[in-house]
Automatic annotation (TrEMBL):
Family of this protein: Belongs to the acyl-CoA dehydrogenase family.
Residue span, Acyl-CoA dehydrogenase/oxidase N-terminal domain: 29-140
Segments forming domain Acyl-CoA dehydrogenase/oxidase C-terminal: 256-396
Source organism: Roseibium hamelinense
Protein name: Glutaryl-CoA dehydrogenase
A Pfam family that the UniProt record links to this protein: Acyl-CoA_dh_1
Keyword vocabulary terms for this entry: FAD, Flavoprotein, Oxidoreductase
GO biological process: fatty acid beta-oxidation
Length: 403
């Protein structure tokens, strides 16, 4: 008679045991390894114990925000001034992966705040704007969101319809936005709108108490349940010229921000696949059926090896991509290929892990179903798998198949 397989016995999720098959660790600098283990320990101690309850209730764990601030992980290779920490691209990716290995809602919260909102200010703002917004956001005292998608324009957000009209020293924004994460409670939201005068897309920092701004939480989501996504109404929302990000002159500038974050989504997918493999391996070793661990069956071993092969290929993808970023050689289409490959593969790895856990696989307690549900969002947001394929397909074939 073995001990009943409780979630605690079945999942050593904090250990990430056996998930570095090709010794990726040897390729990391000391600082990158420190980051990896610091965030790993944080995830195990702080995220794991609370996350399933929040996920079930669809609430955001606000209690983690000051603790995340203490981790000092806000900053990267591109955003290293104004209170942000300089971190290599691989180091930044490891932070993303480790957060996602514990929970993708927490990783998405940081991804939207730092990768999209802060990075928009960093890449598209003036020096004065960076000095004003970034330090408080780097300390997580003020939280950001990013409003590009609209109810009628997701994949074709290039055609966005929200308008911006200049009136003296102010701008008047009107339109609808759908999906921005953090938007229900954030302090600053970056709103992309089309200037009625020159028809170009411009970016504005809208503050949460602006009377022309309202955000309603999107309820009944079955993925990333802790992330508070919103439907937004901009109704004669007046912002000053000071709130316009000066270097955003057209949609081309928006696309530059998105290219950087697609690399981050690929790392997040690796984090989910790492958790999935770890959970499946541990469970297979400990679950006894027909008098022996299910891991001793050929078919289960085949599934585990397929998962490990996919996980290892994803790790090599993102490690190489990170080094290419640090060498200034990453292109938009490389980021698109990595986002496409890693998210689709990671969803598959999570689904296989969920199979290995049988009935327990569909419960929150064993974690894997949360990862599988959350992978659905990673495949979709910041450009769906199909759209990433079209971006790469256009590059390799020389033909645009978008329309
Ligand atoms: C959890 C979550 C968080 C998000 N967070 C944010 C955020 O913080 N800020 C923000 O601005 N947005 C956010 N989004 C929006 C996200 O970026 C969009 O959902 C995504 O770009 C897809 O747009 P859509 O949902 O309108 O799908 P659609 O564009 O309507 O696509 C529907 C389907 O059609 C396919 N399709 C579309 N065009 C083509 C084509 N030409 N060829 C082949 N297939 C095509 C798509 O791949 C998809 O399968 C978030 C979305 C989710 C789900």
């Amino acid at each position: 008679m073995t001990d009943r397989l409780t979630p605690e016995l079945a999942c050593d999720i904090g250990k990430a045991r056996g998930t570095d098959y090709f010794l990726m660790k040897d390729q990391l600098t000391e600082e990158e390894q420190d980051l990896l283990y610091t965030v790993r320990a944080f995830g195990e101690a702080e995220i794991q114990p609370v996350i399933n309850d929040h996920w079930e209730k669809g609430t955001f764990p606000f209690e983690l925000v000051p603790k995340l601030a203490d981790l000092n992980i806000i900053g990267d290779w591109n955003m290293h001034d104004y209170g942000c920490r300089p971190i290599s691209a691989v180091g930044s990716g490891l932070v993303v992966a480790e957060l996602a290995r514990n929970d993708t809602s927490i990783q998405t919260f940081i991804g939207v705040h730092m990768g999209l909102a802060m990075q928009s200010i960093n890449m598209l703002g003036s020096e004065e704007q960076k000095a004003h917004y970034l330090p408080q956001m780097a300390r997580l005292e003020k939280i950001g969101a990013f409003a590009l998608t609209e109810p009628d324009h997701g994949s074709d957000s290039v055609s966005l319809e929200t308008t911006a009209e200049r009136q003296g020293d102010d701008w008047i924004l009107n339109g609808l936005k759908r999906w921005p994460g953090n938007a229900v409670w954030c302090d600053y939201i970056i709103v992309f709108a089309r200037d009625v005068a020159d028809k170009q897309v411009k970016a504005f920092v809208v503050e949460k108490d602006n009377p022309g701004y309202s955000a309603t939480k999107i309820e009944r989501k079955l993925s990333l349940r802790c992330v508070q996504n919103a439907d937004i109404v901009l109704s004669n929302c007046r912002v000053s010229e000071d709130a316009r990000l000066k270097e955003c002159r057209s949609f081309v500038d928006v696309a530059k921000v998105l290219a950087g974050t697609r690399n981050g989504v690929a790392w997040a997918a690796v984090g989910n696949a790492t958790a999935a493999y770890d959970i499946a391996l541990t469970y297979a070793e400990r679950r006894v059926q027909f008098g022996k661990p299910i891991a001793s069956n050929q078919m289960i071993q085949r599934i585990l090896v397929e998962m490990l092969g996919d996980l290892t290929s994803m790790q090599l993808y993102v490690l190489r991509l990170g080094r290419l970023i640090d060498e200034g050689k990453m292109t938009d289409t490389m980021a698109a290929l990595a986002k496409y490959y890693c998210t689709v593969k990671a969803r598959d790895v999570c689904r296989k892990a969920r199979d290995v856990l049988g009935g327990n696989g569909i419960t929150l307690d064993f974690h894997i179903m949360r990862h599988l549900c959350d992978m659905e969002s990673l495949v979709t947001y910041e450009g769906t798998a199909e759209i990433q394929s079209l971006i790469v397909g256009r590059h390799v074939s020389g033909h645009s198949a978008f329309v």
